[in-house]
Amino acid sequence: MGGIMTEPAQRTKRVISVFGTRPEAIKMFPVVHALQAEPGVDARVCVTAQHREMLDQVLEIAGIVPDVDLDVMQPNQSLDALMARLVTGLGSVFDAEKPDRILVHGDTLTTMAATLAAYFRKIPVGHVEAGLRSGDIYQPWPEEVNRKVTGAVADLHFAPTEAAANALKAENVDPSRIFVTGNTVIDALLATREKLRERPALAAGLDPLAARFSGRRIVAVTSHRRENFGEGMRNIAQAIAAIADRGDVAVVFPVHPNPNVRSVMDAELGGLSNVAMIDPLDYPHFVRLLDMCELVLTDSGGVQEEAPSLGKPVLVMRETTERPEGVAAGTARLVGTDKGRIVTEIFKLLDDKAAYSAMSRAHNPFGDGKAATRIARTVADAG
Predict the structure, then answer these.
(1) Active site residue 381
(2) Is 256 an active-site residue?
(3) For the chain, percent helix, then strand, then coil, each to nearest 5?
(4) pTM for this structure?
């Protein structure tokens, strides 16, 4: 019985990525693509559709067709009813699919439910964007507990930054199970910008504004945070009006439909020809706006991670941020909601090339666009 001994073929590892909302889909589609490219991994996708329309839009752009779609969204359902439907629905999926591992993202109800359903079946869990902590279980609610429960079960923790990794170590997570990967939102942004170069029609809705404001320097604005409602929002609106006084500037502001935002902005900015208040943008149009603008004025969290990848300085209209890495690295600056301070800081960036360049060229601490590949490689190699 001579002959050459051959290594037994490595068994394919079935990995199901589970997500349900638009932000998760944006941050997970690069991971799904990277897993699909990994030999030895059978990459499957299960969506719960916690956000139906907004989720589908991202899946279509990313070219992902889910293998399983639970479609759990019902009007006015309570958190506990949704949680129960998610756990039982995902449990049935895992029984049928028999995955070797699941991957979840961040801090949604889908994330916690999938983690528990996997735990009940002793299926290992990998947690993408692990380690974010506010230290208060009611801020943000219920997200802080969603991510803490997930962290208690997961055996692979993909932390976007060193600060997130340190938060996990402070909770006695085994350091050998923590991997600092960068944030996959950067991978998504760069992939989408590339796609827009190939298919400009995906973001052609901004063509009229690009033509109208040709030759002007565009300031992109996003503002919707609850703590800025009232006086803060009025100050922000007045600051935007003062910025728009300049002939070389145009402001593009996708306005949140909340009346606390809309009514204040309409009152202060309604008649200004170089301020475009537009409806909220889908993801490809948002990426194009970041690409078109010179700088970003925002009170949103995610934009602080994304804009620096395209070399755009970010002025944050808050007194504190749960993403201090950007401020420390010089890609973002906290300017609060004082009208004078906002205007001064914006004019400085518009008029002082050195100040602009220092922020524009600062290293983005949130990632280099290769997070998904690192995650997929670690998953493929894990036991």
Answers:
(1) no
(2) yes
(3) 50, 15, 35
(4) 0.88
